[in-house]
Amino acid sequence: MKNRNTYFLPQKLQNISLAFSKVFALLVATCLINLLSLTHVQAKEEVAFSKNQTDQIFTLIERYIDNNPEVVLRALEKIQNKEKEEIASEQKRQINQNKELLFSNPTSMILGNPKGKISIVEFFDYQCGYCKKMLRVLIEATKNNPELRVILKEYPILGPISLTAAQASLASLKQNKYKDFHQSLMLMNGRISERAIFKIAKEVGLNIKKLKSDMTDPEIFSMINSTRELGQKLAIRGTPALVINNEIIPGAISLNRLQNLVSKEN
Fold this sequence. Notes:
The chain is α+β, with helices and mostly antiparallel strands. It has helices spanning 5-13, 18-42, 51-67, 70-97, 99-103, 129-144, 160-171, 178-186, 194-203, 208-214, 218-233, 255-265, and strands at 109-112, 118-124, 148-154, 241-244, 247-250.
């Protein structure tokens, strides 16, 4: 009986264009020709493939790929796995080099215990639906663990409204309303807009005139740019992203998984 995965292979291969297969075959053939030529050179035998011989090699390789298309998938998987390993290694190096900015920056916003022994960092965007889900998980986690310290990093990468929301949120620090405003803005129903931002700001007791003035403070832009630069160094390409145990966890995760990761750090 065939392995079930073999029945899914043709469907996967429908996503691989004919052009890619030909390019892949060309690369393989070129490498093979170069290898054969190198072998002959090392043997001090000058051998040049004729056009007809080269065409035959290409034909044989294309035929092999047609008959064994899974080799293309395996090659792609190896490339992707190698890239992931290289990115993870570089991310760990950058975490070690930027621990001060990640965990000890005095301008950081914190959920849970500000003096907690266990620290995790979250990069988030107010327009990110998964960030909204992640906030609920983080709030629950801080309730369950009194030693948990969640450092929030405003990372507006989803457009101008994200930037406006981050400016307003950071400006609310000057009125000591960050936590209430942050949670209300993040957990609001519907799409975020400039009108919604100031509506929520008013609901949590912020002085709107002062808030708008504070949003233009160069310090606000400096904080946002600093976080953006940090995120770029860490190769954070989406939100939410958590930094736990010298590792970057992309995307929203469950409370159970978060607790398991935190317990390893403790």
